[in-house]
Amino acid sequence: MKKYKQIIVANWKMKLNVDEATALSAELKDMLAKEPLADKKVVLCPSFLAMHDVANILKNSEISLGAQDAFYEEEGAFTGEVSPASLKELGCDYIIVGHSERRAMGEVDELVGKKAQAVLANNMIPIICVGETLEEYEAGNAKEVLARQVSKTLENLDNKYFILAYEPVWAISTSGSGKTITAAEAIEQIKILKDSIPASLKDFDIVYGGSVKPDTVGDFSKDFKGALVGGASLKAQTFFDLIKNS
Ligand code: PEP
Question: Does residue 178 lie within any of the structural domains?
């Protein structure tokens, strides 16, 4: 499963309707069929509503289906939630948990950890997001915040493969800060991330997310296993170029 050099994950957030998501998936599938990038793993995370149609398009392709979130319970009276098992049934292999946009709505480390555990229990790969806010960064607290987020979120995880996504909240294109992190600065945080992962967890990769573009992705590729991409994943040619340059 992990023979690739880089994993590039598209987070389409709530930005595309079903028709747009299916059209973009089909376009990317065609592009990657014409010019296969065998050492790159590509994952598309559409909205829940578009997942069924996108799953059908991605059948018989090398592109994997991902989700933007999942609940931690298997089934029951949880209005509005989506179970990991139902996503697995749809053909989903990866699930983003703890994205900063969800943490901003109140998700805390413990909840994110329970979601990640449920994803693993359903034989999918969680992409667990951590990252400091602009306030925390400017106060010089980034390392402390990252250490807390990583150790608390991962404390009850089974020892199975997972992906940790380092996404400085302030560097995400839609954060409104207008700031981007330099690759050197992001790379500096890898040690603190690794040191904060519980010793029982041996099998993981770390990817970077935050305003990654086709002309900047290469700066991160040597030290990170890949990228989580928002804005630059919304146009087929831009995303394809980004994948190629990673
Ligand atoms: C994200 O929201 O996870 C993200 C990385 O977005 P962008 O690439 O647009 O900064």
Answer: yes
Q: Is the pTM of this model over 0.90?
A: yes
| CA 168 to centroid of ligand 1, rounded, Å | 10
Residue located via tokens 């994803």: 119
Q: Domain tally for the chain? A: 1
pLDDT tens string 162-217: 999 999 999 999 999 999 999 999 999 999 999 999 999 999 999 999 999 999 99
Q: Which residue, judged by its Cα, is nearest atom 7 of ligand 1? A: 230
From 101, 132, 136, 167, the catalytic residue: 167
Indicate the SS3 state at residue 211.
coil
Q: Is residue 211 part of a domain?
A: yes
Q: Is 99 tagged catalytic?
A: yes
Helix (H) or strand (E) run with residue 26 in it: helix 18-34
Q: What is the DSSP letter of 169?
A: G
Instruction: State the CATH number of the domain containing residue 227.
Output: 3.20.20.70
1 domain-assigned:
no
